[in-house]
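Extended Data, record Homoserine dehydrogenase
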Amino acid sequence: MEKVIKIGLLGLGTVGRGVYRILEENRENIQRRAGVKLEVKRILVRSLEKERGISIPNDYLTTNINDITNDPEIKIVVEVLGGIHPTLDYVLEALNKGKSVVTANKDMVAQHGQRLFKAAQNNQCDLLFEASVAGGIPIIRTLKQSLAGNCIEEVFGIINGTTNYMLTKMSQGGCEFGDVLQEAQAKGYAEADPTSDVEGFDAARKIAILASIAFNSRVQLNEVYTEGITRITADDIAYAGELGYNIKLLGIAKDRTEGIEVRVHPTFIPKDHPLATVGDVFNAVFVRGNAVGDTMFYGKGAGELPTASAVVADIMDAARDIVRNVPGFIGCTCFREKPVLGIGETISKYYIRLKVADKPGVLASIALVFGNKEVSLKSVIQKEATGKTAELVLVTHRVQEQNVQDALMDIKQLSSVLEIANVIRVEGEK
């Protein structure tokens, strides 16, 4: 008799519909590649009456989670509901009943991954979450399997499409933040409340997941230094171009001897770096391994079918493990316990834009403060004064962040310094 694995789908929104479509439209290829027939048996929805824009038999739909978690025929539960509550309870219940789980939920994995992996391990089932980071880009499987023979040294990249779209538009048109935000909202790239994207919280969840996998040491979400793009102006964009950089919101993770750097913030990146040319809503993740060297993974980081593509690949992996009787074969890989470094301990170059009084000796007094804090200046641009105010743009050599922050505290006290307009880290230079 032909073997069939039954699936319970939690959620039938954008990604849920994409998952169902791919399973149906690519049914024959999926069966041949997975070595087993995959069938959706039940789909959890909030309302049975809602118009869904896709043809699905009515008896597939349910509003009762027990119809899925208590069904012994359902071996794989696919979670695309999003959010934490009640989703976390649903997923834990499925795992505790021995069902493998595939999820696209970055919030849940970033905040409750340890608890979820423990449940999966205790019940010998898979917990797979490729779609939780960078949509259709196969980065988690790559780090866990394809690059498993490497010691990963760095992972950094563009992992939020909304902010990348906005910064691309600002760079191309010299527009201000507020104008491009309205455009992104009008096109559906940004939510009505864009806080999670523009303040960097979405990217922080993703880099916490990537860092945990890359360095085999759990990184908690609250350990990720997070800074958004709301302070980026057209002036910063223009100076970046003048200095040979583009500005990107990057998630950055580095494995150092002392501990792990993990942070999200706007970043100056050289125009000749592969990440610098990634535009619009695309994502890209740059990985450096001690054996493979530099690699980059590029593609659509969100959307119905790109995200569903990653979900279906995980479903197929879970199905193969069930057929071979090895569910949970690749579980949690956090076997190290390295500390996460505070932002003051990180090392970078810095772009610093100051508004100062236009009078003699100002630059010398600022340079003296930096020198006293062991911050070496690489370049200085002084723009023509407007009225009694001038603008200074400084770029430092590589230095520990705490030195820069200490210097800026003293610089704020100088009567000739009117404003520290912006401070942006510089990465990606050889």
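Summary. The mean pLDDT is 94.
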